[in-house]
Amino acid sequence: MADFLQTVRERVVIYDGAMGTNIQTRNPSVDDFWGKEGCNELLVLSRPDIIKDIHASFLSVGCDVVETDTFGGARVVLAEYDLQDKVAEINIAAAKIAREVAQQFSTADKPRFVAGSIGPTTKLPSLGHIKFDDMAAAYTEQACALIEGGVDVLLVETCQDLLQAKAALVGVFDAMQKAGKRLPVTVQVTLEATGTMLLGTEIGAALTALQPFEVDVIGLNCATGPVEMNDAVRYLGVNCTKDVSVLPNAGLPQNEGGRAVYKLKPEDLAQYHKHFVADYGVRIVGGCCGTTPEHLKAVVDAVSGVEPATRDVKPVGAASSA
């Protein structure tokens, strides 16, 4: 735990880019998915070479952290592919794959880290799709496997529903208690182009609800590009008592021929990240959907050596509903 958080305190830490869109560029076959097309997490068992190659592609351009291929690795999602009995196997394998590649690139001067990716699942508890306790239990199961596999950080990402984010945090803290191990925890919400989470929560309410948890980093990822995130990032810089992370998409997705296409250029993503670091005090940057090794190479070049703006945020009393 100390190694990762100490690195965050010392310099800007750079996460990798998109897993899903980089899997697509490698054109895995239906057989690679064992007939369960769309379940990217299954590739850690069927085609670990593809996942290793993606991890290496980001580490080779200077990223500090790679995320495991476990975004949909909770029982809630895997059950949709009749893979609910493979939760532990998939998450442990994904963590070990990422750990193996990270160790190959780690040096004394530049250690590399593995973040266990924990996505929002396909259910919204606020809308009654799933009971809170059932969702928390699924997250505990996934986090236990990621911890066993050897991740350095637990990353709860792309949160669309505050109740789901809380269930995930309850789950990961329960998993750490079971494992007898405390890892750094990051929680990242997703704001739509409207400026709110999917169910209408604005960034102030999200921060108020999540800040009391003993998480180490609060941030944003997915849904939009850095342009649309700017105001929310500034809000976190001024008001968040934790370290702040920002992992945007490569711009807003454009629908071309039924496929999502991301058109933000690497140099544009890099300049926004430099702005977030230098002006708002963001300490963790990276990429989400559509971001390639080229995008992250530009980010590495742009933020390396940039001193994050000083943030001295004092806790204030606040309340949020729902």
Give me some keywords for this one.
8-stranded parallel sheet, single chain, 13% strand, 43% helix, 12 helices, globular, 322 residues, alpha/beta, TIM Barrel, 10 strands, two-stranded antiparallel sheet
Kindly describe this structure.
The protein is α/β, with parallel strands linked by helices. Helix content is 43%, strand content 13%. It has one domain: Homocysteine-binding-like domain (TIM Barrel). The protein has an eight-stranded parallel β-sheet with strand order 1-10-7-6-5-4-3-2. It has a two-stranded antiparallel sheet with strand order 8-9. The protein is globular and about 50 Å long. It starts with a helix and ends in a 19-residue tail after the last helix.
Helix content: 40-55%
Q: What do the pLDDT scores average to?
A: 96
Main sheet: strand order: 1-10-7-6-5-4-3-2
Predict the CATH topology. Answer: TIM Barrel
Structural class, from secondary structure content? alpha/beta
Shape assignment: globular
Estimated radius of gyration: 18 Å
Main sheet record = 8 strands, parallel
Overall number of strands: 10
Helix and strand run: HEHHHEHHEHEHEHEHEEEHEH
CATH architecture: Alpha-Beta Barrel
CATH superfamily: Homocysteine-binding-like domain
Instruction: Give the class-level CATH name.
Output: Alpha Beta
C-alpha termini separation:
32 Å
Beta-strand proportion:
5-15%
